[in-house]
């Protein structure tokens, strides 16, 4: 079957939904995101990206791919490699068998990425579907790009074996069987409940709604005398929100789209109301990003307290939202 | 966000790429709308890029003053820090910092130069040079 590229908002949900569609089960990006309960929030002060803490608005890498196995009766195989040569050989072998293969890569070493977006971020996902017979370049479907791209073997190898935080170690993955249409009346409520549980009940104060509050506190405590550092810190939060694979506001919108699909499949209009609610929360996140960006550009004075208040308001709304979601599930 | 509110301001850092954004259409359904970019993203991306460029420029001036080696310059050019360079080369961070001393760097073993050059995606010649 000819591989079909589609533009997606987030790399991992984009790759896995393309892959599943390629294997015969029509599934949207929001459905794969929601069904895997990938929405989340985490503020990880000890994991550093460019010397600043990691802020994540979704579950960790591979969570979506792994989370879809159970509801879809899907068996995925994951392979990592010590030796880059072996990793390359294995990829060629799988492509030779006519498979499409998911790859974890660094963003920095992918030459087709716009220069200014190439940071050392290692949890990007792309899908390889063949090699150009003339040039030998890999044919890739990068879901965050509008069209398919190609990448020279040496560059792809470097991107797959980049070192550092979340190092991909050449990870590749592919399905071993045919995914099945799930029993929606069971799978969807379970997925909704799980997301509510992650956001409300995780016993760590850095995950879920409590994580948002923790981040608010960290922003509030930024050293007022070191404006440069404060700006870098809030800039990082916004970068993680808007740049790194679609981020906070974006993930809220994807999940809202998933809720609409779920409302239809379960014939539960209440989920449509919740979806609208979540779109509003996503807009609040964007409003937070806008304020932060204005402060970075000195269009308004740097006021960490004000940003912290916005985050607390978001935390409050998300808490109410996930309590409602739990009830609706 | 409504479909009509999806930012189309153009974001120079995207270099003409468009991002897929989920937004609510006129019929209330949420679907993908391609976005040409949002100024907020441009601001925070350029903030990070400018900061990295500043570090590289700073290193370049200190090389001219004989205070650091080209290694530090190329590390920043490659958007790395000492921690990441250490992970990419398998060398201790304190060793890398020592190689920032111009006299140490000048008599670095060829094998180490190769290791640095590979990690930074440069040739050994380019590693010794600062342009």
Describe the structure.
The complex is a heterodimer of chains A (329) and B (131). Chain A is of the alpha+beta class. Chain A has 2 domains: 11-175, Alpha-Beta Complex (Cathepsin B, Chain A), CATH 3.90.70; 184-328, no CATH class. Chain A has helices at 11-22, 29-35, 63-67, 69-72, 84-96, 153-160, 184-201, 208-220, 227-242, 247-266, 270-296, 304-328, and strands at residues 39-49, 52-58, 76-79, 101-105, 124-131, 138-141, 149-151, 172-175. In chain A, helix 2 (29-35) crosses helix 10, helix 5 (84-96) packs across helix 6 and helix 10 (247-266) packs antiparallel against helix 11. The mean pLDDT of chain A is 93. The relative contact order of chain B is 0.11. Chain B contains 7 helices and 2 strands. With 131 residues, chain B is mostly helical. Chain B has helices at residues 39-64, 70-77, 82-89, 93-98, 102-106, 110-120, 124-128, and strands spanning 19-24, 30-35. The chains are: A alpha+beta (329), B mainly alpha (131). Chain A binds chain B through residues 7-9, 30, 48, 50-51, 108-109, 114-120, 144-146, 158, 162-164, 167, 231-232, 235-236, 238-239, 242-243, 246, 249-250, 253-254, 256-257, 260, 275, 279, 282-283, 286, 289-290, 292-293, 296-297, and chain B through 1, 12-15, 17-24, 29-32, 34, 38-41, 43-49, 51, 79-81, 83-84, 87-88, 119, 121.
List the helices and strands and how they pair.
The complex is a heterodimer of chains A (329) and B (131).
Chain A: H1 11-22, H2 29-35, E1 39-49, E2 52-58, H3 63-67, H4 69-72, E3 76-79, H5 84-96, E4 101-105, E5 124-131, E6 138-141, E7 149-151, H6 153-160, E8 172-175, H7 184-201, H8 208-220, H9 227-242, H10 247-266, H11 270-296, H12 304-328
Antiparallel strand pairs in A: 1-2, 3-8, 4-5, 4-8, 5-6, 6-7
Helix pairs in contact in A: 1-2, 2-10, 5-6, 7-12, 8-12, 9-10, 9-11, 10-11, 11-12
Chain B: E1 19-24, E2 30-35, H1 39-64, H2 70-77, H3 82-89, H4 93-98, H5 102-106, H6 110-120, H7 124-128
Antiparallel strand pairs in B: 1-2
Helix pairs in contact in B: 1-2
């Amino acid at each position: 079957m000819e591989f079909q590229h589609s533009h997606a908002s987030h790399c991992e949900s984009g790759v896995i939904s393309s892959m599943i569609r390629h294997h015969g089960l029509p599934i949207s990006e929001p459905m794969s995101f929601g069904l895997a309960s990938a929405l989340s929030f985490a503020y990880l002060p000890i994991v550093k990206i460019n010397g600043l803490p990691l802020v994540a608005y979704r579950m960790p890498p591979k969570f979506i791919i792994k989370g879809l196995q159970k509801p879809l009766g899907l068996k995925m195989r994951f392979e990592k490699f010590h030796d880059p040569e072996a990793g390359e050989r294995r990829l060629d072998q799988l492509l030779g068998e006519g498979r499409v293969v998911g790859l974890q890569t660094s963003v920095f070493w992918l030459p087709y990425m716009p220069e200014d977006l190439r940071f050392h971020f290692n949890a990007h996902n792309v899908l390889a579907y063949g090699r150009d017979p003339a040039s030998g370049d890999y044919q890739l479907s990068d879901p965050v790009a509008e069209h398919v791209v190609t990448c020279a073997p040496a560059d792809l190898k470097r991107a797959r074996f980049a070192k550092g935080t979340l190092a991909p170690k050449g990870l590749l993955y592919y399905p071993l069987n045919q995914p099945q249409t799930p029993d929606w009346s069971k799978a969807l409520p379970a997925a909704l409940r799980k997301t509510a549980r992650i956001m409300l009940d995780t016993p760590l104060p850095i995950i879920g709604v409590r994580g948002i509050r923790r981040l608010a506190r960290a922003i509030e405590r930024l050293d007022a005398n070191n404006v440069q550092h404060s700006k870098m810190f809030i800039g990082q939060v916004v970068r993680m929100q808007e740049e790194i694979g679609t981020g906070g506001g974006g993930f809220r919108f994807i999940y809202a789209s998933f809720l609409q699909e779920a409302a239809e499949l379960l014939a539960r209009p209440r989920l449509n109301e919740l979806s609208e609610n979540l779109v509003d929360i996503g807009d609040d996140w964007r409003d937070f990003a806008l304020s932060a960006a204005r402060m970075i550009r000195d269009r308004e004075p740097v006021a960490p307290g004000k940003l912290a208040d916005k985050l607390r308001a978001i935390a409050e709304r998300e808490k109410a939202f996930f309590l409602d979601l739990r009830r609706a599930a | 966000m409504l479909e009509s509110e999806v930012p189309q301001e153009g974001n120079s850092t995207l270099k003409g790429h468009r991002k897929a954004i989920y937004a609510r259409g006129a019929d209330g359904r949420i679907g993908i709308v391609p976005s040409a970019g949002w100024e907020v993203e441009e601001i925070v991306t350029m903030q990070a890029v400018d900061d990295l460029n500043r570090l590289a420029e700073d290193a370049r001036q200190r090389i001219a003053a004989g205070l650091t080696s080209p290694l530090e310059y190329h590390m920043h050019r490659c958007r790395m820090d000492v921690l990441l360079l250490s992970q990419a080369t398998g060398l201790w961070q304190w060793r890398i910092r020592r190689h920032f001393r111009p006299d140490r760097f000048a008599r670095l073993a060829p094998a180490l130069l190769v290791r640095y050059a590979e990690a930074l995606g440069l040739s050994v010649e380019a590693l010794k040079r600062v342009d």
